[in-house]
Task: structure prediction
Amino acid sequence: MKRLSLIVILVLSGHFVLSQVPDSTVAPTAPTTVQDTTPPPPQENKRSFSEKFALGLGFGFWFNTRTSYFEIAPSVAYLFPKRLTTGIGYRYIYQHDKQLNNDLHSHGPNVFAKLDLLKRVYFWTEYEYLNNQYFVNVPGVDEEYSRETEGTESWFVGLGYQRSLGRKGKGGISVQVLYNILYDQDDHSPYYSSWIYRIGYFF
Result:
């Protein structure tokens, strides 16, 4: 009787132990995840107004025994993200003829482009059209001159040097040495030579 009771206890104990072990042959089910394949929207590189546009003011002057010359040229430029800058401007030139004791005035628009070559050195090209005043001798009358006006074209190419003075590269001075490809010594150009220099300020 004791042996039968022992066998029954062992059978029940074995059944209890086996019932606590999970079935290792059944693989657990992993949670299903859905990946979002939608590409992220492109991030726009928004630049401020001051990063896109710049104002400039150029000057030029020279003197000799016959003529005093002064020019002023405001401009507005668009700054591309890289090294290129383009813009438009307007130039006014004042000349005083010391022998005739009289003044001449020239003015007109221009378009230009600037390409940075080095940190402070750049290439400059500019086309300009001026309403140009000049003196002509009155036929048959000695020492009598009349003031005439004609259109004058100029195309400048050359190099410039710039030095920033303000914070974050804003504001500074520039110096240019330019050659006028369309210069003709026999015409009535207000420029004294095919080579000119300029000093400017940008902000």
